Structure formats: C-alpha cells, structure tokens
Task: inverse folding
C-alpha cells in the first residue's frame, strides 16, 4: 500500500502527540499551535543542539540573554517596526473575508509578488481581475496592515506596547549592559531563544506560518574593519542562489573571495549554519541560501539570505535567515534614546590626525564680554569645526560676526589651535550579522524530512540525536514477571541517563508501530527467554532487525548503537 | 568593612550581568526585566534541575507540552480569569497616581488585607484616612482592575484575546489530545515551562513582581478515589503554616494521616518540592508552606499552599504554589466548549447496580401509533428515569397520559425493564494538583541566598549545580606563553563538557574578584611554574584555598571537586 504524503504528517502529528491546533476544543485559532509531548522533546533537542553548536561549543564569545515579549512602543518605533513591519491586506467588500493581497495575487496570477510595494499591488489589482476565493467578488480595497500585536502596559492605557516580532530588539536595547558585563570586547555574540508574535493576516500553513513561535537567534557584534579568521569552516561547501537567480555552489572561502557577501562574517555563519543543519539530519546539498533582493529585504538589512529546505506539502520553506544588519539598530536606538551605544575599538595601527581645539581664557573673556561670553565660545566652536589652519590657525586675533555686533577676539582671550594627535582607538557602532532560526519550522521540516513508509507502515526516521526517546522498553506480553523485569530495565536505563519510554499496553505489534511512528530508534523487548537469563531483544526502527543482547551489557550495547556501531561485529549480539 | 545588604544584590546583578530593568536606555518599563548572560545560565540550570527532578527522573508519567501565550478570550472566560483575575486599584483624584488599594492600605494601616473583597476595601477607605504617597490627597476611588494583558488576534478586531496569566489553561485545553497521545492512563502529569504575563498595577519589587515572567508548572491529573503510594517521600519532614496560623513540622505521611491536606497527592508533591528546593541550595527548614485562607485562594482552588522562602530585602517571598484545583477547570472547559473532557477510569472493585432500560418493539409501536410513537418513547424514557421497580417493573401494560390523550402500552409493544448490571469503569473529570514554580523568583531567591561578604569582598556562593560556570581559566599575566597554555586548557575543558569561563584582562586579583562575584566555584591559573611543568593552581571561591594540581589530571580533579571530595586526600594536590 502506498500512502499519500499530503496531510499524513499533520494526522500523525495530532495522533502521536507532536503538534495540533491550539484551543482545538473551542474550534482552534488560526496560526496558533500546541507542541505535544513528543514534539516538545524533539523541539528541545533541536534547541539544545543549536545552543551547543552556536554558543556552548563556540570558541567565539557568544552569550545568551533573555528579554520580555512585551515591548514598549518607543522601542519598536526606533527599530522601524511600527512603520515598516506590515503586510498588504485586501478585504472582500461583499463577504468581508480578509486575504494577504500579495499572496492572493501570486496564487491567482501565477507571478512573483514578494516585496511588491503597496502602490504596485494597487495597480496590479486595478489592472487584473483578482477575486474573493469564497464569493468570487472582485477585490480592490488594498491596505497596509501592521503585524505587531498591540497591547497596553499598566492600568488603563498607561503605555502603548506590542509583542516583539523578533528577539533582536531586546538584545539591542540591552547591548550596553551585556557588552559591559562581557568586559567590553568585540566581537561579541548575544543570543536569545524565545517566543515572538506576528499577527499574520490569514495563516494557513501549519507550523510554517504561526502567529506565535520560538525563534533562536543571535546578534553578532563586530568591528567591520576586522577581518575574521575563517577557521576550519573555510572549506565548507555552500549553495547560494543569488538574487539575480545565479546558483553558486562553492567553498565558503571562495564565495567570500569573490565578493558575493557584504562581509566575511556572513560567510562564516552561513558555513556554520550548514554544519548545524547537518546535525539535525539534512545534507549540505539539501540546504540552499536564497539571497533576497533589495525590495524583499527587511528595512534594516544590507544583505539577507533565507535558509531554504524543501518540504513535501509546502515546497521550499525558509527555516532560517542570515542578515547583515550593519549598525542600523544600534545607531537608531542611540538616536531615539539619546544614549550613546557606540563602543571604543582599538585601531590596528595608531593614526595621526589633525585635531582642532578651542582654547579659552574664561576669566579674561568673561571680564571683557560678560553674558556674551557664552555666545562667543559657541561661535568659536562652530568656526573651529569648519576652519582651515591656513585661515585661522593660531592667529593673533579673530573677528566674529555676532547678532549683537562684530567682536574682535585676541589670542590672549581665546584662540583656535591646530594640533597633530595620535589616536589608538576610535568610537564605532559595531556592525551586526544575525543568524536567526525558527525552532517550530525546523521541527516541522525535520518531521517532514524523516517520515517514510515501509510496507504499509509509517516510520519517522529521526536522527537519533533528536528522537523524542533514545530507546523504548516493552514486556512482550502483560504478564507479571515480564512486566516486573521490563520495569526494572526501564528504571535502570533511566538512571543511567537515557531518555526511555515504557509501554505495556496492547499487542507487541501495535507497540512497535507506535515507537516507529514517534521515531524511537530502538526498542527492547523482555520475553520468556529473558526470564530464563538468555538476554533481551533490541529491535531497530528503520531496518526492523532484531538482536538478542545480554542484559548485563545493555547500556553498553545502546551506547554502541548510538555511536552507529555494529552490535554483531562488537560481539554484543 | 561591613557591606549593607540593601540594594547590593541589585547593583551586583546589573554590573555582573545577572539582571537589569528592560529597555533601560529608554528609562525602563516597570515590571519588566532582562536576564543577563550570567543570570540566564543560572536560570537555565534551575529550569533544567526542575525538569530533571519533576519530569525526567520521575517514575510517574509526567510529560511536557508547549502552548501559546496568546489566548482567545473564550478560553479565559471558561477558566474564570476574565471575571476573577483582578486586583483592587485606587487612583489619586489630584495627581492621578495609581496604587494597588489593598497593598497601600496594608502599608499605611499596618493590617493584613490580602484577599479582602472590593466592598470591604471600599468600606476601609471610607472609614480610615488613606492618602496618596506622592501628594497626600485622601484616596477613595477604588476599582477592580483586570490583570490580563489584552490584544486582538488577526486583522483589526477580529478576535479578542489576552496573554495567558498561567500556562495551565493551555494544558487544560490540550488535555484531550495529550491524554490520548499518552495512551489514556491516569495519573498523568502535563508540564509546561513558559512565559506568562500579568499586567500588575504598580510593580516595584525587582524580579519578585514582574509583568512578564517564566513559570514552571504541571497539572497532575488523577482519579481522586485512587490513593497514591507515598513512596520514599513519606518520611520527608515538611513545615506547614496552616491558614489559622498553626505551625506544623512533621513527616509528610503524618501530615497526610492527620487529614490536613485535601488529597494525599498534595503531600506527595509538597515533599517533592522540598527535595527540589534542597537541590538549589535551600535547607528543608528554610522552606515554609503557607496555607492560603479561603478568601485568599484563587477562584479554582480547594486548597493552596504558597512555598515561602525568606529574602534580605523583600522578606518572605512566595517562590512556588501547590494548589488543589479539583476538577474545576476540566468541568468548566467541558461546559463552555461543549466537548466532553471526562475520561473513563477502571473501578477498583466492579460495582453492581440497578439499571433501568426501555425496551421497544419499534415496528409494532409504529404500526399502531404512527407519528405519535416518538412521543410515546420519550414519555417512557422520562418515566423510566424516576420509576420504581415495584410500580412499573415488567408490567403487562403501562398507561401514559399524553397531550393527545391517554394511551395504553402493552408489554409486547414496549416495557420498562429493571436489571442488575455490573460495571467495571466509570466516567470522571480527573482531579488536579498543580505545583507551580516561578523561575525568576527562584533565580532572585538563590542569588539573595548565596550572596555573602568575606573581608571587603562579595562572594556569590551559588551551589555548584547552578553556578553560571563550572570553572574559570586565567593566565596569571597577559604574556604570550601563559595565554597560549591557558587557552589550550580552556579549550580542552570545554571539549570535555565543562562550562568554562576564560579571562585574561586586568590583574589576577580583579579577575578572582569577578569570578567570586559571579559565583564560579573554582578558578584555574596558569603561571610560570605551569610552563615549567609543575602544574596549575586551582582556587576555591568560598575559602580562597589554592591547590597546585598536575595538568594531566585536571579534568579528574575538577570532577572530584564537583563531587565535594578533598583534593589533598585524593593525592591530586
């Protein structure tokens, strides 16, 4: 029997506790999903691998922080989200259904519309006939809809706020504190794993388009003049589709050398992202970096690559993005908050430069000009900014034209000095590369990627590192002595540190089918032979091979299996 | 020098990257805090210990799920939060300052006001003079304020929703799916670690009263007629202060036997909570279970104990709660959603009971009474509900008075049968005990509990299981050969799986001071002796003792230290 791959994953996900629509007993809410007991185990293992890969094992200084979802309006004004975080929406004048205008046009006209400006879309709708899918009425009423969830912080309408659409703004607003706690050194990565919310217009794509989801991202702050050591990652082969549609499959160092990336750190984290995707079961070849065109990019980005994998039902899906945010956010937050978020960096080579300095004898100037002294000093400072040495440098006197008249300043009162100064540091706004992964989309993609058929059965061939359980333990039948021994083995393996599932209900065939469907790599069965001291069986999820293994060497055998070794060759079975 | 213990923790937390007010560069938002790079490491270790203690290591079936923060209004109407999740608020008519009315009265009148009804508070304010702290105006305008953060889901005002104030409602609405995925067996624990939001009126107590925070809780679903095996926990001594203020310090089994708890599962999880608190550094004696009085309890609870620890600045603080929610939530969601959330449970002893059954010969009845047959069957069913066997049982005929006249039903057409039936299962709404821990309050409490002074220095004596790093590695001075060796040791220990901090900046004294303040239990220093092959020093955070240890045995020595062993006795030093 051949099973269709259409809603099969969705059906299995609901029945086997991976995910299902939230608030289902109330009819569900579009774009909200619960992650069930087996799903959360896979998701947490993906999160922990991500953390281990990008933070714990990294020799770069990348730290994690946690900031709230609730965000005051002024923060998201500074970030540009209040203005720019919008999607085009179209409403049916007859039945009041609401659609995303670009996606509807794309579906009906079979053209690409991503990143199309509101005016272009309006023109498109006025020229072509695009209709309501429910009642067939022609649609024209296109508006811009802001995707931020709005709320008020404090009693009544004390302060306007939103749920964050990305964790990044919490990182930028906490940059100063974090940078100080981490001893003011660049490069510094600041990561966050947390929930974000986007009030999607009409989400209908399972875990791929959710209104609330988990993001794993970090802002990697660096001095753009420092070129990174590309390290062991330089020979990693990555597959890029440029915004002009050229496909490039080359070593990362060559892609960097060809100048295809706006900064070498982009290449470093793209290669690292491929490494991570391999850990959760994708081959490098299955991962494509799609460059976004200028109009598709977010407002803060100088270059963005979507990390794309293919899914059976939804086709190409973006599971991550690598964006070069430049110093946009730190600059904007400096401007909007009035706090200086620039940092001091050492120059590789000290630089000698001419500096201008206004010297003032305040006492003498005050005595002569009284309350006008302040205006005079301001005028001198303004003059010094644009002054040229040959005109003003160390002159005996300067004539200033001020609102209250012309004044002559002699060099004993004040003068503009021109000096050479050698500086070994300068203030900069660090630049930022942001690798950002969607945990729920990754969960969906790995489940989709792992689902296979064998005979008339379904198998979720999850990589063992992210399987919900390491191993299952069953008594062959529900008989007291078998149950007793199986429970004892279950408890022993659990104490050893394995993630173990115990099940005694129903036939052994149904229990095998269950663990195949939830992706448990191996199942141990206790039978009459086991009671007689002749070991237990271990069954492999993918091949259904069974080995009989000595009970005393069970932990050791599981360790060997987890390392991908052959039990027969090792003499276990 | 003696240091004051007032805002010392707050100052250290900001400077050393534990926590600070969110959006500080914009002046901050009351009740919102960022958890910094050192804070998040401690918090995550607390969360992982919690998960390990209550879920992974438990031999009960307790699973975790994840549900969204955004919650449709109808869910929180069913749960009672839209109606009952309120605090009393009072506004100054002159300066428009807003206060929590009960807390302000408590502070000014020195009386207990928790759980006071709105009318009682109004009476109190009208009788006593309670004034605005800012301008001294007498306050009278008391209102009930709902603490749910409000938002809209979908475009415009499509659907009204809130941020969840507890993760529990996501668990209850997902109960059916989870119960089915877990093979329909009780008891079943369903846990969730996630963010919740409460729009507090005027939060001013650091991490103790936040508007958004992390909760770790589980709903433990059980059949109230099944008495749990109290297990190894039965001899755990717990300290309870009953709502009548009696202090009881006894073994859990004795507290259960005395009937002080509404269900033995309460005792089980209270004892387990003490075990957990011990793992994060509190002694059993430092943990008090404060029973809430009826009016202090939440609307869903039949019995609640706050888990209290003492803090230097904020006094007694509730870090967790154990509530007996009965079957309130599942019943309410069944009523409001129209979905049956009851489950079938086996009876310990099958019960034989009399059942009434209406037997109908539909063909014959239809032939005789035509369209009136339906009314006749309905009338017989109604009669059967209240019927007594001696009156109606197996009679030859029954006379029915129906709107269209009197009819005689002979027993060949229909009869009411009385039988004995043995049933071995029944449908129930499972009862729920909910242990709920505040992750941020626990973080605050352990930091507060660990902060000590030694000479003129501060030490954060965190238990090693929750210290931000296992160990630090320093070169004695910033000299190339020392730096090189120290980096190599750092990388080796990191690969071994230790959580390691590396630091080379500033004097060794300042670096020791830093790791003392962030609570790293041990610091390794590489010096000239190390280059000469004479080992490295390991310094203890609390005693400042130093041992010189052979470099080749470093991992082993750290393992020994982590187990609390003596390096001298073991021959390492």
Result:
């Amino acid at each position: 029997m051949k099973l269709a791959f259409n809603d099969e994953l969705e059906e299995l996900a609901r029945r086997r506790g991976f995910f299902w629509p939230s608030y289902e007993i109330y009819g569900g809410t579009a774009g909200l999903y619960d992650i069930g007991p087996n799903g959360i185990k896979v998701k947490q293992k993906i999160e922990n691998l991500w953390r281990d890969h990008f933070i714990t094992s990294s020799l770069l200084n990348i730290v994690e922080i946690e900031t709230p979802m609730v965000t005051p309006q002024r923060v998201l004004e500074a970030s540009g989200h209040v203005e720019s975080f919008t999607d085009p929406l179209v409403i049916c004048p007859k039945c009041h259904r609401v659609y995303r205008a670009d996606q509807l046009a794309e579906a009906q006209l079979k053209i690409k519309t991503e990143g199309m400006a509101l005016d272009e879309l309006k023109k498109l709708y006025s020229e072509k006939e695009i209709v309501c899918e429910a009642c067939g009425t022609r649609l024209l009423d296109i508006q811009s809809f802001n995707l931020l969830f709005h709320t008020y912080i404090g009693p009544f309408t004390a302060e306007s706020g939103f749920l964050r659409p990305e964790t990044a703004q919490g990182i930028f607003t906490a940059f100063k504190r974090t940078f100080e706690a981490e001893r003011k050194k660049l490069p510094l990565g600041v990561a966050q794993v947390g929930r974000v919310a986007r009030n999607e217009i009409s989400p209908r794509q399972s875990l791929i388009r959710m209104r609330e989801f988990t993001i794993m991202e970090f802002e990697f702050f660096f001095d753009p003049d420092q070129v990174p050591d590309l390290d062991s990652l330089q020979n990693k082969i990555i597959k890029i589709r440029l915004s002009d549609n050229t496909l490039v499959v080359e070593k990362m160092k060559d892609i960097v050398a060809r100048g295809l990336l706006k900064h070498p750190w982009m290449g470093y984290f793209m290669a690292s992202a491929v490494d991570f995707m391999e850990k959760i079961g994708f081959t490098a070849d299955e991962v494509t970096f799609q460059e976004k065109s200028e109009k598709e990019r977010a407002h803060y980005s100088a270059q963005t690559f979507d990390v794309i994998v293919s899914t059976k039902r939804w086709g190409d899906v973006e599971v991550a993005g690598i964006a070069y945010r430049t110093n946009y956010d730190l600059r904007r937050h400096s401007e909007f908050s009035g706090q200086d978020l620039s940092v001091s960096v050492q120059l590789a080579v000290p630089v000698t430069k001419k500096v201008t300095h206004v010297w003032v004898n305040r006492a003498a100037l005050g005595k002569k000009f009284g309350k006008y002294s302040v205006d005079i000093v301001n005028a001198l400072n303004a003059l010094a900014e644009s002054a040229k040495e040959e005109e003003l440098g160390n002159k005996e006197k300067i004539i200033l034209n001020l609102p209250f008249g012309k004044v002559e300043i002699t060099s004993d009162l004040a003068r503009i000095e021109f000096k050479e100064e050698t500086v070994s540091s300068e203030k900069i706004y660090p630049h930022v590369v942001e690798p950002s992964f969607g945990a729920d989309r990754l969960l969906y993609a790995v489940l989709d990627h792992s689902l296979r058929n064998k005979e008339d059965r379904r198998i979720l061939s999850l990589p063992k590192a992210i399987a919900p359980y390491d191993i299952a333990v069953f008594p062959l039948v529900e008989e007291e002595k078998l149950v007793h021994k199986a429970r004892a083995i279950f408890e022993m393996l659990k104490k050893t540190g394995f993630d173990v599932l115990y099940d005694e209900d129903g036939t052994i065939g149904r229990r095998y089918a269950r663990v195949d469907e939830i992706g448990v790599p191996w199942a141990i069965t206790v039978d009459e032979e086991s009671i007689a001291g002749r070991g237990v069986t271990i069954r492999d999820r993918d091949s259904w091979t069974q080995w009989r293994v000595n009970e005393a060497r069970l932990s050791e055998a599981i360790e060997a299996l987890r390392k991908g070794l052959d039990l027969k060759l090792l003499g276990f079975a």
About this structure: The first strand of chain A starts at residue 19 and ends at 21. The two ends of chain A are 33 Å apart (CA to CA).
